[in-house]
Amino acid sequence: MRNKSFDYDFRYLQAGLEGLEDNLLSKEVFWPVNIRPPAGEPGYPELTLGGLLLSRARLNAFEKSNEQAEQLAKLISSVDVVRSKWRVAWEMKATHNFNLRLRMWRDYLEEYRHDPQDNADRYPYEVRLRTMLALLKMEGGGKQAAESELLGILDKYLKTALIKNGFIWEAELQSGFPENIFWFLYGRLPSLPMNN
Known about the structure:
Radius of gyration: 17 Å
Strand content: under 5%
Distance between the termini: 29 Å
């Protein structure tokens, strides 16, 4: 996963806020964002509630100047106003996002299981899906028993496969993703098949 700056995530959250009400009230999971990334950083994905929550968590983790902290507090407060105003729509969107990200995460782990050599190096990027699942679940997503059971099965597999190897994202984000909650960010997948 390529390093992304505070400004990168801030612009995404800011753009996300602009389209958030429309997104929450639509049936669409993915919502277009029309923003340019900071120079040298990757393009932006479409807006999703999972992506918004991930950017928010990353922003909270970054060390910030007083000015950045103040700007972020205002931005998060504005997001919270929309969340409060549209609480039911927010929870429904979180559930829809959770289900979609769960399928994507399952598909990645299945690809890895069938071909570890070609898929292990994708883990630092793909694990953003598992991170979004944790964040979405906190927002009311993943309430159905079947989805929670599937996540438990996938986590059980991942725990047997994961090689503990320290925090895998940018070091400055580690404080925002404690190991007791985000354990899947503290290891890597081996590129050689596991003995079953």
